């Protein structure tokens, strides 16, 4: 149970994001950003399978994080409130109006990383922050929850694919080892075929030579 992915965006332009996983959730969040109304400050949660995409819209900026369903809403929203507070109190808030996509990765990426790690700990308890979130969102029970498929107005089911980077690295290493072994086996197989062909050709030549010598001997 953890916060898997987070971002801050201006409309559909992602200014900064962070994750230690890989998957198609960046594509899905891109679709979600197109549907989020920016004219009103709001809080809402989008659901896809066993993953929840929690959103806070404030002053035209979108603060979003993706978390496991079992992680609940309290800590994800506490996390979003904290990164919103840090972002608003930084000089980046003024620059956000005209910033390019992913321009703040260097300036704010590590903030997302550290806070994601902190708030992903089920035992973490920032009493002041949790109390603030509890008051602001009423234990987040009233936060609007919608199914992603309905929001995106699509008929097909959307599957969120998430894989740990280390798992992908391991799979890649296994693949390379298997490919190397296969290449070695194919090399030996080709060598054996070549040796057999050479041996067969040598026998044929020997038979022909012996046949010619036999004919000449009779003459």
Defining key terms:
219 residues; alpha+beta; Beta-Lactamase; 2 domains; six-stranded mixed beta sheet; two-stranded antiparallel ribbon; 8 strands
Description of the structure:
By secondary structure, this protein is α+β, with helices and mostly antiparallel strands. It has two domains: 164 residues, Longin domain (Beta-Lactamase); 51 residues. Strands 2-1-6-5-4-7 form a six-stranded mixed beta sheet, sandwiched between helices. Helix 2 packs antiparallel against helix 4 and helix 2 crosses helix 5. The chain is rod-shaped, with a radius of gyration of 31 Å.
Q: Helix and strand layout, with pairings?
A:
Layout: E1 3-10, E2 13-19, E3 21-23, H1 25-35, E4 42-48, E5 51-58, E6 61-68, H2 74-88, H3 92-95, H4 105-119, H5 127-137, E7 144-147, H6 148-151, E8 162-164, H7 165-218
Parallel strand pairs: 4-7
Antiparallel strand pairs: 1-2, 1-6, 3-8, 4-5, 5-6
Helix pairs in contact: 2-4, 2-5
Protein name: Vesicle-associated membrane protein 7
Transmembrane segments: 193-215
GO molecular function, one term: SNARE binding
């Amino acid at each position: 149970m953890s916060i898997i992915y987070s971002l801050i965006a201006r409309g559909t332009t992602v200014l900064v994001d962070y994750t230690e996983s890989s998957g198609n959730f960046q594509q899905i969040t891109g679709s979600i950003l197109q549907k989020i109304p920016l004219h009103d400050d709001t809080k809402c949660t989008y659901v896809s399978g066993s993953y929840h995409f929690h959103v806070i819209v404030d002053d035209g900026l979108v603060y979003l994080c993706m978390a496991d369903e079992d992680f609940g809403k309290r800590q994800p929203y506490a996390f979003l409130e904290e990164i919103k507070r840090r972002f608003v109190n930084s000089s980046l808030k003024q620059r956000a109006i005209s910033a390019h996509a992913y321009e703040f990765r260097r300036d704010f990426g590590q903030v997302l990383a550290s806070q994601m790690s902190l708030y992903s700990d089920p035992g973490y308890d920032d009493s002041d922050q949790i109390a603030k979130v509890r008051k602001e969102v009423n234990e987040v029970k009233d936060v609007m929850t919608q199914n992603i498929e309905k929001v995106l107005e699509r008929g097909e089911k959307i599957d969120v694919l998430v894989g740990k980077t280390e798992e992908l690295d391991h799979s890649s290493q296994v693949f390379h080892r298997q490919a190397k072994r296969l290449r070695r086996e194919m090399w030996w197989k080709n060598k054996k075929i070549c040796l057999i062909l050479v041996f067969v050709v040598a026998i044929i030549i020997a038979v022909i030579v012996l046949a010619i010598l036999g004919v000449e001997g009779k003459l």
